[in-house]
Amino acid sequence: MFEYLNGKLVKISPTHIVVDVQGVGYLVSVANPYAWSATMNTEIKVFVHQVIREDAHTLYGFINESEKSLFLRLISVSGIGPKSALAIIAASDNEGLINAIDSNDIKYLTKFPGVGKKTAMQMVLDLAGKFDLTSSSALTINPVSADSNNVALEEAIEALQALGYRATELKKVEKELANQKGLTSEEYIKSALKLMMK
């Protein structure tokens, strides 16, 4: 099992990043690929978790061990798969998530894609009182300004769709996002998630 990869970040797409480790390109699915923009074409360390299924071997990547730990706890809940866990992590609101779980706030939890009422109740049952993410503020990477706001917004929308958010959900916030000028793809994603979680 892999613990982490040390290599050069060579590609960012809406669903994943590619890390070149001594000439081998590893495709790594991450919560917010554009959060890695500041480290493009530089050496990075990505904490990873490998999921092996009959039809695929997938690497999921994380900025630090706290984010990986959160992912592992989430996928331990019946009904939450890796894709749903990434969508939850992408919101970058660990305090809100932990408070919702600890206070049995089912309505908040069902706002995440792939999380229905039954799964939200299972999250509360399995995870209430089990979090101590005091270093959650370390889950962000400093952003780099995007060349074009339209491109950044398009990338953000694509990344959110890859996480499982429906086009109808995104349409509701797209106009408000377009009014926010000068944001990077990462900032648009964070802003969209905040708007959708209201």
TrEMBL record:
GO terms for biological process: DNA recombination; DNA repair. It holds the Pfam family HHH_5. InterPro entries: DNA_helicase_Holl-junc_RuvA_I (IPR013849), Hlx-hairpin-Hlx_DNA-bd_motif (IPR003583), NA-bd_OB-fold (IPR012340), RuvA (IPR000085), RuvA_2-like (IPR010994), RuvA_C (IPR011114), RuvA_C_sf (IPR036267). It is found in: Cytoplasm. GO terms for molecular function: ATP binding; four-way junction DNA binding; four-way junction helicase activity; hydrolase activity. CDD domains: UBA_RuvA_C (cd14332). Residues 148-198 are annotated as: Domain III. It comes from the Bacteria. Keywords: Cytoplasm, DNA damage, DNA recombination, DNA repair, DNA-binding, Hydrolase. The keyword DNA-binding applies. GO terms for cellular component: cytoplasm; Holliday junction helicase complex; Holliday junction resolvase complex. Its main location: cytoplasm. Residues 72-91, 107-126 form the Helix-hairpin-helix DNA-binding motif class domain. Residues 64-141 are annotated as: Domain II. Gene3D superfamilies: 5' to 3' exonuclease, C-terminal subdomain, DNA helicase RuvA subunit, C-terminal domain, Nucleic acid-binding proteins. The RuvA-RuvB-RuvC complex processes Holliday junction (HJ) DNA during genetic recombination and DNA repair, while the RuvA-RuvB complex plays an important role in the rescue of blocked DNA replication forks via replication fork reversal (RFR). RuvA specifically binds to HJ cruciform DNA, conferring on it an open structure. The RuvB hexamer acts as an ATP-dependent pump, pulling dsDNA into and through the RuvAB complex. HJ branch migration allows RuvC to scan DNA until it finds its consensus sequence, where it cleaves and resolves the cruciform DNA. Belongs to the RuvA family. Has three domains with a flexible linker between the domains II and III and assumes an 'L' shape. Domain III is highly mobile and contacts RuvB. Homotetramer. Forms an RuvA(8)-RuvB(12)-Holliday junction (HJ) complex. HJ DNA is sandwiched between 2 RuvA tetramers; dsDNA enters through RuvA and exits via RuvB. An RuvB hexamer assembles on each DNA strand where it exits the tetramer. Each RuvB hexamer is contacted by two RuvA subunits (via domain III) on 2 adjacent RuvB subunits; this complex drives branch migration. In the full resolvosome a probable DNA-RuvA(4)-RuvB(12)-RuvC(2) complex forms which resolves the HJ. This is Holliday junction branch migration complex subunit RuvA.
